[in-house]
Amino acid sequence: MKRILFVILSAMLLASCVIEKTQQPAPVTPVEPKKKQEPPVKPSEKVPQPPKVQSINWNSVVQPLVEQMVEANGVEAGKVLLVDSVKNNTNGSLRTLKATDAITDAISNKQVFQVVPKSQVYTARQALGLSSEDSLGLRSKSIGLARYLNADYVLYTAISSHNGQRDIEMQLLLVKTGEILWSGRGDVN
């Protein structure tokens, strides 16, 4: 016990000692920066072309599916519907925002559902900590967002590619149970 106390006191004493030693600052010699000569710019061979984004008439793609959906069994008119953003499960570049807008417009024109406005969806995404660019990807996240917005249905849409052919698949989900009330598939030309 005495040894430990002696070691601790010695350490404290040594730690409190200050050695004063004046040290001369290191000499500073200014150096002028050398001017680098840029290598001559050679014209590049060819600038690669960006991938061409195909123009798709989304209205003609989604219209038949929306007509099937509003006539499906078990679908009640006047209920609140959340149109989830379209998921791009292809390797290519698609304008999914335009596809989502086309689906929303087609459903609004049928006047069967009360579609949740984009501004409400945006606010709800912020409240839940989801970025506006986040395509929810999972049906469970879509249903969670729909529950937050007090929607009765959620429309989940994904575009996939098989053997060079792109397909669009839509599913109308009942928010309370997650049950798929209607499912439809179409070609994306």
From TrEMBL:
Cellular-component GO terms for this entry: periplasmic side of cell outer membrane
Segments of skewed composition (Basic and acidic residues): 32-45
Keyword rRNA processing listed: no
Signal peptide as annotated in the record: 1-20
GO molecular-function term, one example from the UniProt record: enzyme regulator activity
Keyword Signal attached: yes
Alphabetical GO biological process terms: peptidoglycan biosynthetic process; regulation of cell shape
Alphabetical list of InterPro entries matching this protein: LpoB
PROSITE patterns linked to this entry: PROKAR_LIPOPROTEIN
Job of this protein: Regulator of peptidoglycan synthesis that is essential for the function of penicillin-binding protein 1B (PBP1b).
Similarity section: Belongs to the LpoB family.
Name of this protein: Penicillin-binding protein activator LpoB
Originating species: Xenorhabdus khoisanae
